[in-house]
Amino acid sequence: MMGLQSTTAVICPETITDTAERAKVLDLLGQSRQVVDISFNQMSHFCGNVLEVQDQSGEKILVVSQSAFDAFSQNQLNVLSADKTLLTLNIPTIEKIGGGSARCMLAEIFLPKV
Question: Which domain holds residue 33?
Fold first, then answer.
């Protein structure tokens, strides 16, 4: 239903049924990120299952499955790629049988650099 990046947030607001809670979440996200609203249909194509990573030089990369990429609108892709490179993976077996997508296949490491 949601993926958070450094400057953007992909979210399906329809999944938050309490309208007051939905407004709070969108307001909070909008204070520090550009919000990309996705529909239930886009959510079912794993648009919320994306992950921002960095390469060794610090460049931001957004890992997105091919099915998610195909489900995003061009405007949404423009917002997401404004400050990061989109890396698209074709992983239909994982999405169909595993029930997850790109974010589920990657591990995040939050250790300080030494």
Answer: 2-105
Q: Return all residues near 19 (Cβ < 8 A) that are at least 6 apart.
A: none
DSSP state string for 37-48: E--HHHHHTTTT
Residues 6 or more apart whose CB falls under 8 angstroms from that of 43 comprise 1, 12, 15
Q: What is the pLDDT of residues 78-103, one digit of tens each?
A: 999 999 999 999 999 989 988 788 88
Pairing, β 8-11 against β 85-89? unpaired
Q: Enumerate residues 6+ apart whose C-beta is below 8 A from 90.
A: 65, 66
Taking the complete model, does pTM exceed 0.85, yes or no? yes
Taking the C-alpha atoms of residue 55 and residue 84, their distance in angstroms, rounded to an integer, is 11
Model pLDDT, residue 32: 96
Total number of domains constituting the chain: 1
